[in-house]
Structures are given as C-alpha cells and as structure tokens.
Design brief:
The complex is a heterodimer of chains A (622) and B (256). With 622 residues, chain A is an alpha/beta fold. Chain A contains 20 helices and 20 strands. The chains are: A alpha/beta (622), B mainly alpha (256).
Chain lengths: 622, 256
C-alpha cells in the first residue's frame, strides 16, 4: 500500500541479523574480557540464546502485524486519536518526503555546493510549508469536527462590508458581494491582490486558521463564517488549494479520496461506494492504488477536485487550478468543471490567471485590485506586455552543440535522438506538453548524464567534473526555492559569491541580481528587500534570484525550467525581460516552457518536443 | 480528570519519566531486592517501560489536537527517517538528533517528547528494527526532544542576531551532552544482556553499586562512547551550527 517501503518480511530478516550480531558480540566480549577457550565460546553462545530469541520474536511479530492497517481508523479512536493521526500522517507522507529529500540532494549538486547539511534548510522550509497546507486541508475536510455540518438548502455566499487584515495589513477592504447558488465566478487580479484571501475567507481559513482579523459579515448560507470554524463546514464547502500536492493527506489516490469521508465518520460501505463513484467520474480508476508522488500535474489536480467533492458539498472553491497544467490538461479540467456544474448544480468560485480557457464556462467575472472587488476581468491590456527589442550581442559563435542525445531512465527513453546547436546570447525555448521530456533534456545537460554528445565550446559535458560543468551549463530547476539555504536575500547573494569563489566585498551576485531584475528600487526600499526571506519574495523574483545565483558561476549556457510558471501577466512580462537581460550578458539561454505565447513574446527560437523527440527538425549548421 | 488539570498532567508525566529512568538504571538498583526476586526484574522492566510509553502517550494526547500541531509532528517524525534512507547511498548522515532538538526547541518540551517517541515509532514501523529496545529508545529520544525545550537560552519577541546565536550555542552544547547521555542510558539497561556473564565488564547481580558502576564505565566506553556517540555528538553539533538559525526561524514561522 505504501511505496518506497519495506517488503513484508524485512523486519524478520533485520531481527535475524540483529540476533546474530548480538550473539557474535557476546562471544567477542567473552574472548576479549573473559577467558579464551572453546567452552567459553560455547557457554557465551548458549547464554545469549534467550535474549536473541526475544529479538527474533519481536521481528516476527512486526512482520506478521501490519501497523499501517490499523492506522486508517486512527481518527476514530477514543483515546490516543491525536498521536494515531500524527503517526498516520508520518507514514503516508514518508514516500513523498523521500522524493523531496532526493530533489534537495540534486538541487545541491546543481547549485555546486558541497555542504550536505545546508540543504536541510530548504528541506525544513518545505516541511513547514507542507505541514501548514496539510493542516489546512485537514480542517477544510472536517478533521476533528464534533458536530454535524449545517447544511443549507440555498447556500448563497454573502459578504457585506467585509474587510480582512493580516498582521495589521488590510488585504480585503469593505467588500459587499453576493454569489448566488449555482453560479460560476472567476476572480482575477494580480498576484498579491487578495484573490486567495477572499477564497480563504469563504472557506473560513483566513481568520480561523491563519489568524487574520475580519470586520463586517460573511455568510455562507445560514452559517456565520465569523463564528463557524472550517471543520464544521466540510460538507458544505469543498476547497482546492493552490499547490494541491502539498495538501494531500493520503498516500494513494484511494486513500486521499476517502480521507475526508473517514474523518466525517461515514460508514465503511458508503465510503467504498462513494470512492468508486468518484474514481469513475474523474477517470482515476486506473490510478486508484497509485502512490501520489507518481501522479502528473493534471492527475493531481483532478484528484484534488475529486477529494474536495467527496462529501457532496454544494460549493466548490478552486485556487488557481490551471496554474501547473499543460494545454491538454487545462481543457480536461475545464470540461470537467463544466460537467460537474451542470450535473450537481455546484456553486463554483475560481481564482485564475489563465482566464481564456475558463471563458467557455460562461462565468461571472470579478477582479480584485488593492483589496477591492469590481465586476469584469482584470485589465491586462493597458500594460505593455511586450516591447520588441533586438538583442544586439547575438553572436555567430557556436556555443553548444548537441548531437543525437538520448536520455533513458529505468530503461524508458524519455528523450530520443535530439540534435541542435546554440549560439552566443541566443534565446531558445524548448516547448511541448507535460511529459514531453523538456525538463529531462535540460536536467540531462546539467548533470552530464546522457547518451550521445553535448559539447560546450568543444568540451563534452559528460566528461567534465561537476564543478567544471557548472561553469559551462548552469541549471535553474522548476522548484527554485530548493536553492535557498539562508534566511535573507542579502545572505543568499553573499553565499553565492562565496560558493563560486568570488572574492569577498565584490558583491558580484548582488550586482547581477539587481541588473537582471526588471524593477528599479530606491535606496530606502533596497535595505528592506535585502532583508526579506528568499521564500517571501514574489514567484518571479525568486526565479530571478535563482538565475542570479547560478550566473555567479559565469556559465556559457543557462538552462531554466519553466520560468513563467504561476506568474500573472505583469510578472510574466517582467520575467521575459529578465531572460533578455541574461542573454544580453552574452549567456545563451535555453528555457523549457509549456507556454508557447511566452516563447513567442520573447521572440525565442522554438524547439518543439513531443514524446521525447524534436518535432521541428532544426538545422545543425556546419 | 487528569486531562483537565495541566499541573496534574505535568506531574504525572514527570513521575512516569522518573519511573522510566529507574527502569533504565535497573542493573544498579536491584541491590535493595532479595536475591530470589532479582531474577524477575528484567521481565518486570520489559513490561513496565512499554506500559509507561502508553500511559504517557495517553496523558499527552489531549494536549496536541490542532491539525497544525499534528501535521507538524507527523512530518517532522518522518523527516529524520527520510533523510537517513534517501541519503544512505551517498554516505548518509544521522539527522535525527538535529530534528528532535530543533523541533523540541521551537515547539516546546511536550512536543519534543512526542516527536522523539514518534520518530522512533515511525522508523521501527517502516524499516523493521522493532525489538526489546524500542520502548527504551522511544523514552530516551523523547527526553532528548523534551530537554531541548527546557534548557535556558531562549529568545522572545523579535530577537537580534546575538541572542539567536547564543540560543544556538546553548543547543549545540546540549546536543553534544545529549548525544553521550543517550548512548550511556541506552547501554545501561542493556548492559547485563549485552556483555553476558563471566567477563571483567560483566554485570554482577547483587554486587555493590560502585563495583558495578566501574564495570559499566568500561563497557560503555568500549562499546559506544568512543565510537557511535562521538560521531553522533559531532554531526549533531556541526549540523546545529550550520542550519540551526535558519531552521529554527522556519519552524517558528509556523506559529503552532
């Protein structure tokens, strides 16, 4: 049931080896500290047998009894429920934690850092983030609720003169709004405008979980949100948070779907039949027992929606459900939402940057700016999204030559027979749907693990030691926060200088960072920005920081995985500017993206991948 | 009733811990018993310690009920095991003590105690290694976590760098001492079984406390103090020095 774990008889074999070691040690001590004779060996062995038997018996018991089976019902225990739940969380999160630890390890190598310890910092940061997301999901799914949910016939959402503050800062201001039952609403707005805050207010997380303070009133049906905690509205409101993977409570698809029903004390038969129904409805049947770490972004999103709808809530809230998805998954999810709305008369509230695909749902559009809500879409047209500009320094010199490159992981060919060349200061976009091999291609170049050839100015990448390779090709992975090992921007920039061996006092990385950042800062703001925790920077700024950190190695080629992921239109055009600035330093920029518009806006050369092969044959200049 | 009175609960936990400590030190305490009762002591101990684990768990269960605390507890308990397993291929290191100490420090002695117990429980369930020692390990690891929440050097409000550094220095000192104490305690209850009879490091049933103590001293020095415990003390100390400050800050941002 749980992957990445032991076989059934492992504890028994472990205990056998412990018992053998125990007996051997007893003999050893007897010979070393007692008398040396065969009879001494014999008596040491005989006398050690009883305890050795106890050890083996314990191993046998833990092989025969699978504790994990009992943990499923931990949330229904009368005594010891809390610790049972904590143990269940530990065991079901363990496989994903293993993958996270591996990811951190590879981030360390990509970053060119030797200190293994330092990468416990992003691991802990991830853990805290995951703990909070998981706890919020447990609350919205009804964990620990002692009374039944108030279910109302007409679950309208009504805000009147509602304001919300966090740590003394007002995020939502005097909002008066009614969302009628059965309506679809899409909330648009820049990052940080308060979209998520509004959604979390309706879900009850903003005040009861994150500790915000509100004024005015917010009613969901007949429930007063100000006094009703999220766990008591679990069968009224389904909530799909932004980064769904962080909030999963189960270890497999089936466990995740049944979690909410279990904590709401549905009976076993009902749970089983509801889960089967959901598996069919969301086309997840084939994945029912798959461990969650193996789901694609689209599958994970579908699962999160299915889990939120498990107790048949009449209201569904979705926070940027399309952010991570490629074109095919976007249309699957949008169609699914349309069907669900028609069939179950759901009230849908969705926040999203990618508004175009949602138009087919014919929603009511709202936008938030500076904490205020107004009808209509967020107007991004007024901003100059793209100003064409030629990069002066594109040279003719060939920097990178890739010939018949393939990547196979577990005898599965993820990238096949790719050939292309890249020149100085060129911008190249590697595009294609999720799973086409974009990230795999970039990661292979960065790690030097590939078949075929990839040469930077004649040096074969796979033949170079890691620290020499990073001065040819540096890689910025999709999860840029894995790179951050300190507690402020200033420290992070200084650390990068140190790691790359740049003399102290030059502040080269800091200079790089502010020169590629598409944002001019006053001196007074500068100190504040430099003191900010790297994870508190905006998503786009974090990517820019990771790029600056890697530029400290002065690589010839910069590889960037999904730089525009999760960015609003304004931040996206800033990111385009960042990439152009990097290219202007003479660095060749190769980035993976499933966002073709972004590639076109940048005027980048496009390498389209499909099933690991280049679709557009690209000339290899002689 | 006990669950409703925090002071009584704390008292009950302290008493259980003292009783458990007595169980750890059984080889030195059996002198007071008549010689025919001595043979029964190990059996009593093997029953007593798991019973105490259950008692303390139930006593503490009520004090952790919020979803945030439980999620944090579960994830931190899994992380030590995950680090150990995922990095074993590349010369893995012992991160468990670092997790226990920082967790106990950030979220208090009770949390630290539960974290210690759960961490051992998680790795026993996942990777085998369940045995007569498991209950003892759970207590000892629990004390390590709890101690980190009890030692001085705390910071409050919005501490400056100097105060935070001082806190880490306290934790490093504690980590080194705890590493050796943990090893010695785990050796103490196991010693009569581990060494066996008829050697110069053997336990003498009914022998004087001083004689047994000096024999135990040699045993623990030979078996773990100079090797495992020193490695653990070094990794814990170095690890806390490198990651202590940013990790404590990260944990405290969770505001349980």
């Amino acid at each position: 049931m749980i992957s990445a774990s032991r076989g059934r008889w492992t504890p028994f074999w472990v205990s056998l080896s412990f018992a053998a070691a125990f007996i051997a040690l007893r003999i050893f001590y007897r010979l070393l500290f007692g008398s040396v004779s065969w009879s001494a060996v014999g008596s040491a062995m005989t006398l050690a047998l009883p305890f050795a038997t106890v050890i083996v018996a314990c191993g046998l018991i833990s092989s025969l009894v699978d504790v994990r089976r009992f943990l499923v019902s931990a949330s229904q225990l009368r005594w010891g429920r809390s610790l049972g739940t904590a143990l269940a969380i530990a065991l079901s999160s363990f496989p994903t934690l293993i993958t996270v630890v591996r990811r951190m390890n590879s981030a360390r190598e990509l970053r060119g850092m030797r200190s293994r310890m330092a990468f416990l910092v992003p691991l802990f940061e991830h853990t805290v983030e995951r703990a909070i997301a998981l706890a919020a999901a447990m609350d919205t799914k009804g964990f620990g609720s002692r009374r039944g949910t108030t279910v109302c016939d007409i679950p309208a959402i009504t805000l009147s003169d509602y304001s919300l503050s966090w740590n003394g800062r007002e995020v939502l201001r005097n909002i008066s709004l009614t969302l009628t039952p059965g309506s679809i609403t899409v909330l648009t707005g820049a990052t940080g405008s308060g979209k998520t805050a509004l959604l979390e207010s309706i879900a009850g997380l903003a005040t009861h979980f994150h500790g915000g303070t509100s004024t005015g009133s917010l009613m969901v049906g007949t429930c007063d949100r100000v006094t009703t905690v999220p766990r008591d509205t679990a069968s009224l409101i389904g909530y799909v948070p932004q980064n769904v993977r962080l909030s999963f409570a189960g270890a497999t698809v089936r466990e995740e779907l049944s979690f909410g029903l279990r904590v709401q004390s549905w009976d076993k038969q009902e749970i089983a039949s509801r889960v089967d129904e959901l598996l069919t409805l969301f086309s997840l049947t084939d994945l029912a027992d798959r461990p969650l770490e193996f789901l694609s972004a689209g599958q994970a999103t579908r699962l999160a929606i299915a889990a939120a709808l498990a107790p048949r809530p009449p209201i569904l809230l979705l926070d940027e459900p399309l952010a991570d998805l490629d074109a095919a998954s976007v249309s699957t999810v949008v169609t699914l939402l349309g069907d669900l709305h028609a069939r179950e008369e759901l009230t849908l509230v969705i926040t999203e940057h990618h508004t175009a695909p949602l138009a087919e749902l014919n929603p009511q559009w709202l936008h938030i700016a500076e904490g205020k809500v107004a009808p209509g879409q967020w107007d991004t047209g007024r901003m100059s999204v793209y100003q064409p500009r030629n990069i002066a320094v594109v040279g003719r010199e060939e920097v990178l030559r890739v010939t018949t490159l393939s990547v196979a992981i577990n005898s599965c060919e993820l990238v096949q027979d790719v050939s292309f060349t890249a020149r100085t200061a060129e911008l190249i976009a590697v595009t294609g749907p999720n799973g086409a091999g974009k990230s795999t291609l970039l990661a292979a170049l960065a790690s030097g693990k590939y078949l075929g050839n990839a040469q930077v100015r004649g040096d074969e990448l796979s033949a170079l030691p890691a620290l020499a390779r990073i001065t040819r090709v540096a890689f910025v992975p999709e999860q840029v926060s894995d790179f951050f090992v300190t507690e402020s921007l200033a420290e992070e920039l200084a650390r990068a200088d140190k790691v790359a061996g740049i003399p102290a006092g030059k502040a080269l990385t800091e200079l790089t960072f502010f020169s590629i950042l598409d944002q001019k800062l006053q001196d007074s703001q500068l100190a504040k920005v430099l003191a900010t925790h790297p994870r508190d920077l905006s998503a786009g700024t974090q990517v820019a920081l990771a790029i600056a950190l890697q530029l400290s190695w002065k690589p010839s080629v910069m590889l960037i995985d999904e730089p525009s992921r999760g960015l609003d239109p304004a931040a996206r055009s800033s990111m385009a500017e960042v990439l152009r600035c990097v290219a202007e330093t003479g660095t060749t920029v190769i980035f993976a993206t499933h966002d073709r518009v972004f590639a076109q806006e940048l005027d980048a050369r496009v390498l389209e991948l499909s099933d690991g092969r280049l679709v557009h044959s690209v000339e290899v200049s002689s | 009733m006990i669950a409703r009175l925090p002071a009584l609960r704390t008292l009950a936990i302290v008493l259980s811990s003292l009783l458990a400590l007595g169980a750890f030190a059984w080889p030195l305490l059996t002198n007071a018993l008549p010689s025919d009762a001595r043979a029964a002591v190990p059996f009593v101990i093997f029953g007593l310690v798991p019973a105490l684990i259950v008692a303390v768990s139930l006593l503490l269960d009520g004090s952790v009920s919020s979803s945030k605390t439980l999620a944090m507890l579960g994830l931190l308990a899994a992380i030590g095991a995950a680090v150990r397993i995922a990095s074993s291929g590349v010369g893995g290191f012992e991160a468990v003590f670092i997790v226990l100490i920082l967790g106990g420090r950030a979220f208090g002695a009770r949390f630290g105690f539960l974290l210690g117990m759960l961490t051992i429980a998680v790795s026993s369930v996942l990777w085998g290694g369940f045995g007569p020692w498991t209950a003892f390990q759970m207590f000892a690891a629990g004390w390590v976590g709890a101690g980190a929440g009890l030692i001085p050097g705390g910071t409050s409000g919005n501490p400056d760098r100097v105060a935070r550094r001082r806190e880490i220095l306290w934790l490093i000192g504690y980590g080194v001492i705890a590493s050796y104490l943990f090893g010695a305690l785990m050796n103490l209850w196991f010693w009569p079984f581990g060494a066996g009879p008829d050697t110069i490091i053997s336990y003498i049933p009914g022998g004087s406390v001083t004689e047994n103590l000096s024999r135990f001293g040699v045993y623990t020095l030979m078996t773990s103090t100079l090797t495992w415990d020193t490695v653990r003390a070094l990794t814990t100390g170095i690890g806390l020095a490198i990651i202590g400050m940013p990790v404590l800050k990260a944990l405290r941002r969770a505001k349980l």
